[in-house]
């Protein structure tokens, strides 16, 4: 476990440092996805495989795609294609792809090894998590459902384009 | 290299959290500040997972799932707020005075 943990930790720290030192938001997002994937590998090492899957699906999948769509939506215009060409230089995506490849090799090695986790780590099965989630934590589950509902409603309300026209009369007068 | 796994995981979580904190302090671009909040939430989740494996209890993983749902809600509302601010200010700087080219 040790060497696998150190490789994943080094990749996560390096990619996080690359996130906070980039000037271009797309490059930063690329490195942030690598950082989240390496943290998912660390979750797998610590005996939480279901949480590793959730990290990949929700964090690196849903949330990052949301932010990428948002960034794409903000800078519309003729310079978008030029930016796109500039962002897709091989030197820019080569390093995150290499880090992802290292993580993939490490994960495949860990799965193929199929050994008990290192000393001091006791894996917690997803079954116990689910039993605890819908046993003593049922109130918190309801609260987080309400939080997500509030998030949806708030995002819809804030993201709506406000109409400047007060009445139909002003609209017909203005045009 | 004979560090206890809990110590190593907690140290990594602390390093990631401090990196996110540094990023939110030095950046002026609002999307970057949102990203650093994501980094800090992720570090907190890592700390919960490490604690869960240390005590062999599922509570830490339950807390990680709550952190995950909270991060999703926070990102959606935060992005909508940034969109409104961008329409108002025509800029993503958190303060208009300093230009950090971020």
Number of domains of chain B: 1
Query: Outline of chain A, from the CA principal axes?
Result: flat
Q: Please write the CATH class name of chain B.
A: Mainly Alpha
Average pLDDT taken over every residue of chain A: 82
| Low-pLDDT residue intervals, each spanning 5 or more residues of chain B | none
> Most extensive interface, residues per chain?
A-B, 63 and 60 residues
Number of separate strands of chain A: 0
Task: Give me the CATH architecture of chain B, please.
Answer: Orthogonal Bundle
Q: Average pLDDT value of chain B? A: 84
Assess the beta-strand content of chain B as a share of residues: under 5%
Oligomeric category = heterodimer
How is this structure best described in words?
The complex is a heterodimer of chains A (175) and B (102). With 175 residues, chain A is mainly alpha-helical. Chain A has helices at 2-21, 25-45, 49-74, 79-87, 90-113, 126-133, 138-159, 168-174. In chain A, 78% of the residues lie in helices and 0% in strands. By secondary structure, chain B is mostly helical. In chain B, 77% of the residues lie in helices and 0% in strands. Chain B has three helices and no strands. Chain B has helices at 5-26, 30-55, 59-89. In chain B, helix 1 (5-26) packs antiparallel against helix 2 and helix 2 runs antiparallel to helix 3. The chains are: A mainly alpha (175), B mainly alpha (102). Chains A and B meet through helix 1, helix 2, helix 3, helix 6 and helix 7 of A and helix 1, helix 2 and helix 3 of B.
Question: Can you give keywords for this protein?
Answer:
heterodimer, A: 175 residues, mainly alpha, 8 helices, 78% helix, flat, B: 102 residues, Helix Hairpins, 3 helices, 77% helix
